[in-house]
Design a protein that fits this description.
Number of helices: 12
Distance between the termini: 31 Å
Order of helices and strands: HHHHHHHHHEHHEEH
Radius of gyration: 21 Å
Oligomer: single chain
Strand order of the largest sheet: 1-3-2
Helix content: 55-70%
Structural class: mainly alpha
Shape: flat
Strand content: under 5%
CATH architecture of the largest domain: Orthogonal Bundle
Number of strands: 3
CATH superfamily of the largest domain: Winged helix-like DNA-binding domain superfamily/Winged helix DNA-binding domain
Length: about 240
């Protein structure tokens, strides 16, 4: 799980991939990650330059092997359509998380099985896959983010930025506020006041998009996402 070794300076990953390049080294490093485009997403150039096959982290062919093993009754035609349309155009483009593709396959199978109880048995078809995709990417949480105010959406973006900066998926309101101000400056917008930020955080917590510390620590309250980062990025991808 290479993505779990990520640090801000990326020294751990750099040293790991630098060892095989040393003179007379007989070491080969094989790394896996759930993210299909991990080098492009999080690696500095000095780290990515140490990789022999940076584009082969998680290929569609490898993903196909997993699905064949888990869902052996998928026919090859459906697999070909599935991975050209889904893995290439949806999973990689939206989140890069290979597990999301497997989740969609599982849900498509459940939809097919439920439909087969009412009619004659059938195999999983692209209609089932499309229904699973629509269901997965139209949750109430995603709709809530899309209907949120502009500054609420920026606050969620600020949380993602702070998580990437710190390398952990928990932060304080104060740290997120610094990111929020920076994003407003980039967009040429007026930054909200501290009181407005606290109100934004409270509303997002009430919608259960955030998990907010219930103590009276004010700016030092700890916040976490109550949904996946992928869902947030998907909901905000057109914003």
């Amino acid at each position: 799980q290479l993505d779990l070794l990520w640090t801000r300076k990326q020294n751990v990953m750099y040293n790991l991939f630098d060892w095989p390049t040393q003179k007379h080294s007989k070491l080969i490093i094989l790394a896996i990650a759930n993210t299909m485009d991990l080098p492009e997403r999080i690696m500095m150039n000095r780290v990515a330059s140490r990789l022999v096959c940076p584009s082969s982290f998680f290929t569609v062919a490898l993903l196909s092997c997993f699905v064949v093993g888990l869902w052996g009754f998928f026919c090859l035609l459906i697999l070909a359509k599935l991975f050209s349309q889904l893995a290439g155009n949806i999973v990689a483009a939206l989140s890069g998380d290979a597990r999301r593709c497997l989740d969609i396959c599982r849900r498509a199978t459940e939809i097919c099985e439920f439909a087969s109880q009412k009619r004659t048995p059938e195999i999983v078809r692209m209609a089932h896959v499309t229904e699973a995709i629509d269901e997965m990417f139209s949750s109430p949480y995603i709709n809530a983010i899309r209907n949120a105010s502009l500054h609420e959406q920026i606050f969620l973006k600020a949380i993602l930025a702070e998580f990437r900066r710190a390398g952990v998926e928990e932060s304080t309101v104060q740290q997120v506020y610094h990111q929020h101000v920076a994003l407003c400056r980039i967009e040429g917008m007026q930054s909200p006041t501290i009181s407005e930020i606290m109100a934004i955080c409270s509303r997002l917590g009430a919608c259960r998009l955030l998990l907010v510390d219930s103590s009276n620590k004010y700016l030092h309250m700890r916040v976490q996402l109550n949904i996946s980062q992928d869902d947030v990025m998907y909901a905000l991808k057109d914003e």
